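Fold this: Peptidase
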Amino acid sequence: MKRTGRTLKLRLVLLVIAASGLALLAWSQVWIDVSVVQGSSTVRLPISGSTAAGALSALALAGIALAGALTIAGPVIRVVLGVLEVLLGFSVSLGAGLAIGNPAAASAAAITKATGIAGNASIQDGVTAAALTPWAFTGFAAGVIMAAAGVGIFVTSSRWPGATSRYQAVRFEAADGAPGSQPAASAGADEREDAVITWDGLTRGDDPTTTEGDR
């Protein structure tokens, strides 16, 4: 059972990393090839995921950070992180889905910058074609995978092995002090006490080289 839990944990953490990396890769690629009429000519513009769904990069990076947190999280925090991963995946899919559903609107900022055409109505009228590339659907799929990984984390995290027992042992040992530290501290205190006694004797005129029997 422990080995199964460890395998589940490893696979889900790797799945989160892979899905987040895929979303980040898709974000950097061209999603839409849009053609816009400008005067008597037609302008073709490649629209990347960074323009069509700009939030994907932050969401993907958050997913990668969440995978790192999963490796050291306790049982309760794992559940919270699982829910958070579902929300991240949903947000990635939503951003990609909006671009897929309305590529002209997703391209509006780039169209305005390249042609000077502004306003949703003008842009919609000026766009003659908007072809989606596979990367737009890849971004959507990455979000679905992230959400599925979050569900897996939520459902199976109770079967994961405890990852903090060794850390807690080291922490408590550091807090209590290493073995042998208390005797060393006691010996230091005895030496300081002997030094004070010797000094008091010198102030009274005692000779520290004489023994108790000689006096």
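The mean pLDDT is 81. The CA atoms of residues 56 and 92 lie 6 Å apart.
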